[in-house]
Design a protein that fits this description.
Structural class: alpha+beta
Strand content: 15-25%
Low-confidence stretches: 1-20
Number of strands: 26
Helix content: 25-40%
Radius of gyration: 25 Å
Shape: globular
């Protein structure tokens, strides 16, 4: 009866999008696991349902039979196969039949998973290899696809994991702040925190879980991951709710809404440690009573060609208040293909199906970019990328970084400048104007004034003329074909002005000077009374003070504090302080 009721609930949820009242972390975690344990029907089930049922200690005979069937069909997916079967092994606890257990063991000898070519691939690969080597601690090289013993596998994995933790806590994450790929960083740390036997590895993983949650907490607006991202898919970019981050924001903080069927990333996180964030992170993740500016330093993905340094710095700024968030990086190709450099995201009562965001982009596509970050042959590079990232080589695209885009942000003002050289594949810029903008007015001055939902006003001043092009599914794309170009964007809460007309009048009173030759330049006095001076390729200044990128911290703002090379993160909320010290593997809680 319990299983039938759960199946009925899950089916109803999938059909009409209902959301259970889930007042606490434990209840929300159970809802996620139950969604997989009891839905869909057993005939369609895969690794995720087997793992969820084993967690519940349900249907062990079915789990064994189904696992053997899947493995007999042949493993696939490389490191994305490794993490589900690792969970099954850890959750077995005597439930599987000897033949199912032997089939699982044989698969780690006969199938050779590719280690991958990205940071998340390596972390998935090594964390699961570590745990499975721990699971069979005395096995020799003849039992492993690696040709190494369990002890050697564990040592190789340990070294890589520890080096990744050190690099992240000294120079920032490479695939940073991804609404989708955050899940494949949280899974390995949840696995190690839940299942590693070595106390130091277990503690390090728990601390990294807090570090990753802290990275997300100040940059979420009711569960939506805002600002600049290293990697995001286009559907998640324009409809912010679709990211895996919605699942995690809902699980950790009870904000927003989870996906109709939770992504399996949050499932496997829950099946392992299912780590509940401490109270200070819950406060940071939900308190939007006062506006704040949060800054971060990350690093680029590995640059294999054309640079002396393997990684370059990424400087992020995110301004958050309850009505909206504005976030950016400094521009440039910091990540290949899926980079998103700046946006405005506004609050809506229900984000499902809503495109509550605004941004511009230069639709850059280049063999040079791909050869910087990948090691494959240049001849089929673009064709190969487009097979999976279909918009990469399109002049209409809305996603991607460009070496010809420079960005500066101060509070809720953004200036994006473009200087596109002759011969560039897709000169010009695209602006995303959502189907869900409540009102849009084009002023004779060249400013475009927007009312976004019931919370936010946005003003945008393109530096060149433009035309409108329709977007499939609704909305419009602003297209300006000029290589020397830019936009000035100012955001405000609707509560600050009686209506859109009053907001527009306030914008028109602000001093603004623009020029395009020899390179684009903007001088602008913002609504917050701050004077921005920004020239393409130069160091921007505010009130005459140049931006100090040389001393940009890993984290800075009212909630998080971490210096470059420190391996130390301080979380702050009111009088509460929680310090993660990765050099000593100590966590300290104090009151100030």
């Amino acid at each position: 009866m319990k299983t039938l009721l759960a199946l009925a609930f899950a089916t109803l949820y999938m059909q009409v999008g209902l959301r259970a009242e889930s007042p606490d972390f434990a209840t929300r975690k159970l809802e996620i696991i139950d969604a997989y344990a009891h839905y869909p029907g057993p005939g369609d089930a895969g690794y995720a349902q087997i793992a969820a049922k084993l967690w519940h200690h349900e249907d062990p005979a079915w789990c064994s039979k189904r696992l053997e069937e899947i493995l007999a069909a042949g493993p696939s997916g490389d490191m994305f196969w490794m993490y589900p079967v690792t969970a099954i092994a850890q959750l077995d606890q005597g439930q599987l039949t000897p033949s199912a257990r032997q089939a699982l063991k044989n698969s780690w000898k006969t199938y050779m998973p590719y280690r991958g070519d990205t940071e998340n691939h390596f972390l998935l690969y090594y964390s699961t290899l570590y745990l499975m080597s721990q699971y069979w601690p005395t096995d020799g090289p003849e039992t492993w696809f690696t040709g190494k013993s369990s002890a050697d596998n564990m040592e190789e994995a340990r070294q890589w994991i520890e080096n990744w933790v050190k690099l992240t806590t000294t120079r920032g994450q490479g695939e940073y702040d991804s609404p989708h790929y955050m899940g494949v960083y949280l899974i390995p740390m949840s696995y190690l925190a839940g299942w590693a036997k070595d106390p130091a590895m277990k503690k390090r993983a728990q601390m990294m879980l807090e570090y990753l949650i802290a990275d997300y907490a100040p940059e979420n607006l009711e569960g939506l991951y805002v600002g600049a991202h290293a990697r995001v898919y286009e559907d998640q970019l324009v409809e912010r709710w679709k990211g895996v981050s919605s699942d995690f924001g809902w699980l950790w903080f009870g904000v927003g809404r989870r996906l109709p069927m939770p992504d399996n990333y949050v499932l496997y996180y829950s099946l392992a440690s299912g780590y509940e964030p401490p109270e200070i992170l819950k406060k940071i993740g939900t308190d939007r009573t006062a506006p704040y500016t949060h800054i971060e330093r990350k690093r680029t993905r590995n640059r294999w060609r054309f640079y002396d340094d393997l990684h370059g710095p990424v400087y992020k700024t995110t301004y958050v208040r309850k009505e909206y968030a504005v976030g950016s990086d400094q521009g440039g190709t910091l990540q290949p293909i899926q980079e998103h450099s700046w946006d405005v995201t506004w609050s809506v009562p229900d984000p499902r199906g809503v495109q509550n965001t605004f941004f511009t982009v230069q639709p850059f596509s280049s063999i040079h970019e791909l050869q910087t970050y990948f090691v494959f042959n240049p001849d089929p590079a673009i064709e190969g990328v487009v097979k999976s990232k279909k918009t990469y080589d399109s002049p209409d695209k809305l996603l991607g970084g460009s070496p010809h885009e420079k960005i500066f942000q101060d509070m809720d003002t953004v200036v994006a400048l473009y200087d596109i050289p002759p011969g560039t594949r897709f000169p010009g810029i695209n602006g995303f104007f959502s189907k869900d903008l409540t009102e849009t007015r084009e002023d004779p001055s060249g400013w475009i004034f927007m009312r976004a939902g019931d919370s936010t006003f946005i003003a945008c001043k393109p530096l060149q003329t433009y035309e409108w092009k329709p977007i499939a599914g609704g909305g419009r794309r602003l297209f300006s074909p000029y290589p020397k170009n830019g936009v000035v964007v100012q955001v405000a809460a609707q509560a600050e002005y009686p209506d859109l007309a009053a907001f527009g009048r306030a914008i028109l009173k602000l001093p603004l000077e623009t020029s395009l030759e020899p390179t684009p330049r903007v001088r602008f006095r913002t609504l917050r009374g701050r004077n921005i001076d920004f020239t393409y390729g130069g160091v921007p200044s505010v009130n005459g003070t140049p931006t100090d990128y040389q001393h940009w911290p890993l984290f800075g703002g009212p909630f998080l504090e971490a210096a470059v090379d420190s391996e130390r993160l301080v979380m702050k909320y009111g009088r509460m302080r929680r310090t993660l010290d990765f050099r000593t593997l100590n966590i300290t809680d104090t009151l100030q």
